[in-house]
């Protein structure tokens, strides 16, 4: 995530039992090359020592709000310095204090003094504490005051009970931090994204599929969400977790993908079709597992519906973006697809290369429109996703998409 490099993040740690998991968050943020400083409540230091955070992150750790040094007052300096303030884990106690405007330790003081938009809070606690209406009310209040609240996960809790209150995956928290730092360029827009391969059954245990990992489509869905869009991701089978903040619909076959996409197409302002949908499906999949008997076996295949072609035909004022995976004559083949399918943009990549494309975390693409081509450098898929969205926003203007009223 190029744009996170050198961003100043104040990571605030409070006294929840999940504090040891935030050690991993501090370490992940270091790997993203952010500038990191850490503030801990006294309660947090009773669960994990400051030296642990300092060692894994290389960041200074502050605890005492009265350790004023030559006019350097910790809470005013840290809150002015930071681009983003993140509280993970956030205890019920700290949440209540911030909601009430109280400030009697370095974390609550810094939160009160922090005046920028990027404020992220990760509540974690016992399931009954989380369910308490007073906690819910405090969180609602903080959300209405512009805090990004990362919902806790459900499952086994440290206390032995089961329910909602667990510390979420650190990757989710990093996504929420990224989102909080980016401008909401796509606010009010509905973005439909497809990702991953499809699976066409041969029999109940076998299928035909392809090598798409879904990483590019998931990156696009995450990036659109970070830019403030309302995102629906229709995904074929992948090993990737549902992205934070995105409504994810899982499908398996090309036919299911077709149905799910058409259900949401009418509502969408921007459509990014990154899935590798099968062109052919098995005509008559067997009901029972096929036994190994004859030496040769012939499978009869029939064409699937061309979803992109149908979308191009039915296009109202959606901005329709296709992806083209080519092994030869990249630009020529992609441009033909753009024209044939009535697309606004096509993103072409060379899948014969081992270092980019399918399964890789990086990609190098050329963006084509009817009047030109725009090559982008090789970069991580998440940075590429943001660059593709920036291109679309600049090229078409948000107004064109916004003027499309799906209900009209
Ligand atoms: C072992 C232990 C685990 C705790 N875990 C949590 C927790 O997960 N969430 C929470 O809200 N409070 C938890 N508490 C209670 C807080 O530590 C307590 O409310 C404390 O005053 C919080 O201070 P702080 O908000 O300033 O960090 C825990 C307490 C103990 C002793």
Give structural notes.
This protein has 408 residues and is of the alpha/beta class. It folds into 2 domains: 2-181, Rossmann fold; 190-402, CoaB-like (Rossmann fold, 3-Layer(aba) Sandwich). Helices cover 36% and strands 24% of the residues. It is built from 14 helices and 22 strands. The strands form 6 sheets. The chain has an 8-stranded mixed β-sheet with strand order 13-12-9-14-17-18-20-21, sandwiched between helices. Strands 3-2-1-4-5-6 form a 6-stranded parallel β-sheet, with helices on both faces. It has a two-stranded antiparallel ribbon with strand order 7-8. Strand 10 and strand 11 (206-208) form a beta hairpin. Helix 10 (215-226) packs across helix 14. The longest helix has 22 residues, at 381-402. It is elongated, with a radius of gyration of 24 Å. The two termini are 38 Å apart. It binds flavin mononucleotide. The site of flavin mononucleotide has 16 residues, from helix 2 and helix 5.
